Amino acid sequence: MPLLCIKCKSRVDRKLSEPKTFMCPEHRDINLNDTISVSKRFFAQGDKEVRLEAERKKRKKIKGLKRLQQQKIRRNKK
Asked: Is the pLDDT of residue 5 over 70?
């Protein structure tokens, strides 16, 4: 999923050398102090869908880890 600008929702192409930002170059120049990493602040400003999708992925990951843990326990019992 490509990064989208939090101001105008346009795609953000970021080079590895640049700091992690969620703004297109036009908005980044205006708000230099807004170079934010993936944090609660981003999710607070971001789309509700983006936040829900992140929570869904997190739950899915936790579910997968629990399943692996149960498999390990079952294997050790035998």
From this structure: yes
